[in-house]
User: Fold these one by one.
Assistant:
Number 1:
Amino acid sequence: MSNPFSPAQLWSLADQFGTPLWVYDAATIRQRIAQVSNFETIRFAQKACSNIHILKLMREQGVKVDAVSRGEILRALAAGYVAGGEPSEIVFTADLFDAATLDCVVEHGVPVNAGSIDMLHQLGARSPGHAVWLRINPGFGHGHSNKTNTGGEHSKHGIWHTDLGAALAAIAQHGLKLVGLHMHIGSGVDYSHLQEVCGAMVNLVRTAHAAGHDLHAISAGGGLSIPYRSGDPVVDTQHYHGLWDAARQQAEAIVGHKLGLEIEPGRYLVAESGVLLGQVRASKNAGNNHFVLVDTGFNELMRPSMYGSYHAMSVLRRDGSTAAAQPTVVAGPLCESGDVFTQGDGGVVLPRDLPAAQVGDLLVIHDTGAYGASMSSNYNTRPLIAEVLVDGGQARLIRRRQTVDELLALELGL
Ligand code: LLP
């Protein structure tokens, strides 16, 4: 529901940088970081928004970072993060290594949060003594969509909980150094079974301790949701921390010493800081549906097409007037029927009451700071769009617009 910017500010950014445009508000990000600062380590899941300048902002606030690819490790390094140390500023989380990424974690000494036992063997053979976390699938999970539920037997993520013993044996075999246990059961979690998640973590710590393995930290993973619609629950971060802190204390009683407690949010830290600015370029009626067509599509914001996700929207007219609302289907420029921002799960178009929009008006799509720019593609040969960070009233271009020539250059002159 959030839009940190005034209409005048958005018009001036659209005039200065053009549309479509990603805009982020630094103050909102700092405020969300403060909300979870009772966790001693906040590790930003950069897949949510991996712009180097956003990562620099995170680092300035003392936030550490998670990387899920070689590219994300190189982004973290470019933002000034350094791997190693306790806790390491960078951790690599994955379920497999490709050859180049294995080289990269070994070269830079990046601790690995392993989601498969094969990763432990491959890392151990190359880099005995390397620091590892174990990402465990506790056998259940939850998410805002089936596609974002990462626990349970349908999920490819993590080491199945009953295989913890085998994973620990692989660690011992290669002399790897166990840092901690990690669980991320999904994105957009419902908090009703958080107790169960925390309980599962305590049991895992007990199993590791009984098998003679010491550890230094536990990680609650990410998954904190944000209110995309009015009426959606707002996370009580004190309560959330309290439950995990209690689990940490139980785990400390088992291992007999202090344990670090990490949280790994993506969406929570950045989603509400960002908007996607588009411009209305056409409108038409099809039977009973009124379509407003904008210059941004699912190649920029994929969430509605991929999950049927809801994003609040506003229409801004240059003269500041607001027209009466009418049921509107908002769609993009792509050659795909699914290129619709107002849709439900399964692709059904859902007209939404919006002020009648005219060609030239701005369309503001809210809460797009997470999984917006980072999930964009070049579909229909559309260059990646620019990103702007607003901080203390100053707007700064943090990614310039890609050009079609840059795209063509990948294929020409080979
Ligand atoms: N940690 C791990 C290991 C993860 O896989 C993820 C998200 C996170 C942390 C951060 O989750 P968050 O706090 O942002 O919920 N593209 C989807 C979300 C998929 C997230 C995948 N992993 C979306 O647009 O909702």
Number 2:
Amino acid sequence: APTIRRTDYQPLAWTVEAVDLYFTLDATATVVRNRMRCRRQGTGPLVLMAEGLERLSLTIDGAPAETVRETDTGLEIDLPDDADEAVVEVVTRCDPSANTELSGLYHSGGGLYTQCEAEGFRRITAYPDRPDVMARFTVTLEADKAAFPVLLSNGNLVDSGDLADGRHFAKWDDPFLKPSYLFALVAADLVVLERRETTRSGREVLLQVWVEDGNLDRAGHAMDSLVHSMRWDEATFGLELDLDRYMIVAVSDFNMGAMENKGLNLFNAKFVLAKPETATDVDYEHIESVVAHEYFHNWTGNRVTCRDWFQLTLKEGLTVFRDQQFSADMLAAAGGESARAVKRIEDVRVLRTAQFPEDAGPMAHPIRPDEYQAIDNFYTATVYEKGAEVIRMLHTLLGAEGFRNGMDLYFSYHDGQAVTCDDFVEAMSEANGVDLDQFMRWYSQRGTPRLRAEGRFDAAARQYTLTLTQVRPDGDAPLHIPVALGLIGPKGADLPLTLAGEAVGTVTTRLVELKDTTTTLVFEGIDAEPVPSLLRGFSAPVILELEEDDRRLAFRMAHDSDPFNRWDAAQRYMLRVILAMSADAAKGELPQVPEPFMSAFGALLHNEKLDPAYRAVALTLPAEAYLLEQMSPADPVALRRALIVLMRHLGERLADSWLGLDTRLAVAGDYRYHPADAGRRALRSLGLRYLCAAGVSQGVERALARATGESHMTDRFGALAALVNSPASAEAAIALADFERRFAKDALVMDKWFAIQAGAWRWIDSAQPALARIEALMGHPAFSLSNPNKIYALFGAYFRANPAEFHRADGAGYRFWADRIRDLNGRNPQVASRMARVLENWRRLTPALQSAAQAQIKALLADKALSADVREVLEKALG
Ligand code: HT7
Ligand code: ZN
């Protein structure tokens, strides 16, 4: 596939001002009549993209088109040189039931749905399918009424009625200009949950959540989340819902999480449906944030959109930041500031687990990439999560009010336009009167920058000197980095921070703006050597390099007043212990758990002043993917051995504490989604994890009772996970069978059942390897290769969440991976390429694993039928 470059951007010669679509819908043969009012804006032909369409007719201003050229991407039509306007009508046919890629118009569960971002609209009709073409859409849907009783599209319903032969129609008009990637339609047999709300300015709006029959009792949380999102965006950014009607539709087959089509959001059903018996606290949290994310796109993405796909982080980084802030505010409102800190910790955990490895591997790219072959490969953790961190830094530097002023200016300049990341940062800069030119470098740097810190205490001068040095993986130009920092005194209290030359201050956390490669800070009036607490709240997406011995880490675990850094100290200590234990395991020695670490861990566990939710995150070991990233070479089997020993030790030695806390923190009454309750549940489930890991009989008994009794999904699944990841294989088998019996007919819940088995750790060498189990599960009646959720649950969990079993010494895991990629490539290249990415960092593995992985990647690349999506990923992986 050709490489597309950011610097090659050119406006199109012809744009579309208004488009009128008429769909004659049918599962196997849908005909689309597309009438476009086109306007000249430069020299050259009218360019229409089209993919896999059968063209039935094409007219220009009512006459058959003559000068039409077929190109690799669609059509080019020469229009008279003196024409400024033309009405182009194209009629095409497509087959939704053959669309296994789930891009364009596709068939799922008896209904018809669309997914147009990034380039799916061209699979529906011939069109200048680029985000800088913003048009007014009117859409008529016509279909068999019995098969497709509900007909939805963007905007307002302006007409509907019955037609002959049992058919009916609905006409929709979207009053806002939009790019084609925001187009959507739904034709299906669905039921609706409705609510009417009044916006801040007094307009009445209709909110709808559409689901399959039988799921209405699971739609309430999505609706509540939508209302909360509306209120938050009004209060925080003064942004109101601009439409009379806002719809969310749940779809079972969906490649990603959800899609922000104007007024008609399509959602992967797993991010809509929840009731206590089927969804965990984590599911509830995800639904709230995904609903919010899509809703917030209505302004950051839809009203102001991207000029080209290189600008993707303009809408995604900003919208992730907005959804993170929303969730943090919601959690803090219900659960206090500690709940906000837990949210920040979870977000950084995702960044470190998913984005840091990406930024250190062959797919590394700036948040605004410079080139791509398949844009679908660039919906990445870098564009989304690192992009959100870049926006967060702006928020930190400008303050909430300055940031809000920048947002206001951005909308006042660019509402209704397709713009660039520069436009956004310029609005922030102008609104605040600050120069952000250096800050802009964050948009073009790749790789995670490192921040090296060194402290020196001078007792005689009562000074503490901190030297901070930026180490950048690409290039010399220093970045603009906000660093929040504090100094902790010997008794554990924060010290007031006074820089040389300043009047004595009282502030204990300061924000320092690094603009040079090296910055030296001299703090005065320091009587004893302090312990620095740097990058508080994770104020910048960098790797902090600071020499800290075990004693210091334990001290910060006990005293750091910044909850993020306190958690981070625990993570660093765990990392150090686990790496040492893994090194022992790799040498064939029995890994030992150091006693001082046990004391520091125990102190956190027993600290009743800390919220359960906080203790749950603080006592959770770093993710395996993150740990592997820190290992050199990455040896997944040695790491797993170390983790098993550590978990067993923590379970055994602290058994009484875990059991006591399990009793004390039980939540009485009916399930409610609330951070305080969720925190207690999380800590209890974590306790079961450790207890079962150690085979503590009371723990196993409790887990079995909870996994098989009358419980809600959070407790049930927490207990099931504890059993499955433990030596208690007999109890795990009973719990798995019970779960399957209860939920065999519930596709979303069965995804959990598949995933937990695919990701299961093997505690006893004689136990069945994960791969054998997965191969057997592929034949399960609830499994389907055409449903992305099932692929992610069974294969994704194996490849990503079970490194020790996937990276098997005999290479069987890699052979299985290659077979799956080959098969998925033909069905759904987007999903195939996401799965292909799991081996991109193969060069970090041990030499034996490297050669086994490389052989499979090479074999795959020899396949001529490989899609552009998968090819791009594998070619980059091979380098
Ligand atoms: N903006 C949406 C992206 C998306 C997507 C991209 C490629 C292929 C399929 C897709 N489904 C949704 C999701 C979001 O960020 O809100
Ligand atoms: Zn998004």
Number 3:
Amino acid sequence: LGVAGAVTLTGCDGFGSRGTRDTVGDVDFRNQLPIPPLAEGTHRDGVTVFDLTAQAGRSAIVPEGMSDTWGLNGTFLGPTLRARQDESVQVNVTNQLDEATTLHWHGMHLPASADGGPHQMIAPGDTWSPAWTINQPAATLWYHPHPHGETERHVYRGLGGLFIIDDEQESLLGLPRDYGVDDIPVIVQDKSFDDRGRLVETSRRDNGMLGETILVNGSPGPVLEITSERTRLRLLNASTARSYSFGFSDDREFAMIASDGGLLREPTWLTRILLTPGERAEIIVEMRPGQQVTLRSFPHDLGLSNGRSRSTGATDTLDILLLRANEDLDRSADLPARLATIDRLDPSSAVETREFELRSHRINGQSMEMDRIDDVVTVDTTEIWEVWNGHRQPHNFHVHDVQFQVLEIDGQPPSPELAGWKDTIYLPPDLRYTLIMRFTEYADPAVPYMYHCHLLWHEDQGMMGQFVVVEPGQDPDRIGTDHDH
Ligand code: C2O
Ligand code: CU
């Protein structure tokens, strides 16, 4: 009801009418932005227990008709989980789909046994119940499936949601933090629909599927009613392949306050923030009474040649979310000058430097093998990972379990938006990213951690590797063979 027409594209570029266009037509903003419900945990013996059920269903996303979709505790997407630092949580994940899947906690620092990667498949009808204690600062994390070779399809059909971490320090800063009121989840995805409103899974190019309809929290043409002077948007690029350069239609500045792994040192004023698949940013937008402005993705430079940029959607202008301020706005506290202390990891403490070249759906020339451990890390050590994109396709790089810091990009210090904690980072071709990270959780060969490109088609094609985290001196050869796959 009241669903706006999807963005209409008129061009033809060899993919029927579903290709990308440089300029996207007007979006009819008339759907109230849905806010994913907060999952209600139950409390048992000091543990907060959440229940998530992956299920198939049907959703009316666009007015043309219903689509088969997947969701968690619903037919499309899932609830927002929320927990605070030091809280012990357990999530009972039940799979009511008719195929196996997994659920991975993207950005979460946790034992590998709870990570939900491709070795932790949940068979149809089964329940998987990872438990861990939240051990990281306030941040906007997310969850999504991770079955090897099938991640793109499972995410595209609708499995995913936010996992918000709170901590005491963040709660005392006076930031907007009233969920769904002045603290708004903004899960951005691009989808293709056919003329009967069904999700299309075949519009795939070199880099994966690009959709022409942008959904926020599962809805096209969304409108957010603004009720306060300052509103926090928790932006998540949950698309499978598309990157967004977020900004506002009037080019206003906004304050970026957090990257993937939590608060920045101080608010950073920007007019654009690039988020590639899997990345998050929290921003504060200030509005005056009665004002309207559109959150938009602008054409951007992925460091690729122009032809390649088109096939990534980087040349598109996309209207995403209309913000409409009430005539009376609640007062908001001023933004604090300082947000968080970020202890810099010291490169001289690193015990190992590894290199990762991403090229042709491979990392260091190798395609993901479930039975091959690629890297053996010693627990309680710091390492430097030098990562670069060796060809002219867009890739990013995500590491499980850790949040890393960017030491240098081709010898230069990172810009402020990349100076905080990150778990996923865009790699323009040929620039060398020097990352530093510390490993404090174990991963044995039966359940290793992953690193991979988060363009999910690339990941599915094998652009992924596996690492274990073990005691010093543990024999890597033994590890390579001594497991049961
Ligand atoms: Cu968001 Cu290995 O994934
Ligand atoms: Cu890639």
